[in-house]
Design brief:
mainly alpha; about 50% helix
Length: about 150
């Protein structure tokens, strides 16, 4: 069993939930979580993944390593994403998403780094370009006001 924190924020619309999740994760990582009045918190003990669904009819778990068309290129981008997160910490994918094309989102980048969702090669390439762009900004190779 593992503990999972449930945060209920009925006042938030769907768009604000991802931002709240990032805030909660980063706050817990720092050891302090401050929430506004009216927000509900609950800790649940849930079974480890696969405990309840074990057996021959259980759905197959997603691969943490990209496979299929362009798998080698996807794995290289995944490793760059993991290295970027390791160097810049939780919440760092926001700047990568902002540096990327409109289809590149924080959620997509987190899923790619974790290998939990399959994306087409074009999305991986867009994420790679965004990562390259923000990495150049971090190292000062490009001026910050360049498109």
């Amino acid at each position: 069993m593992r503990d999972v924190l449930i945060v209920r924020a009925p006042q938030l619309k769907r768009e604000g939930l991802e931002e709240l999740r990032d805030y909660v994760v980063e706050s817990l990582h720092q050891g302090v979580l401050v929430v506004p009045e009216g927000m509900e918190l609950e800790v649940l003990a849930l079974p480890e993944p696969g405990e309840e669904n074990a057996g021959p009819d259980a759905p197959e778990e997603p691969s943490a390593v990209p496979t299929g068309r362009g798998a080698e290129e996807k794995r290289a981008i995944q490793e760059k994403l993991k290295a970027y997160r390791s160097a810049h910490g939780l919440g760092c994918f926001r700047s990568v998403a902002q540096a990327g094309e409109p289809e590149v989102t924080e959620t997509m980048l987190r899923n790619m780094a974790a290998g939990t969702v399959a994306y087409p090669l074009s999305d991986w390439r867009a994420a790679g370009r965004a990562l390259d762009r923000v990495s150049k900004l971090d190292t000062g190779e490009v001026m910050r006001n360049e498109p």
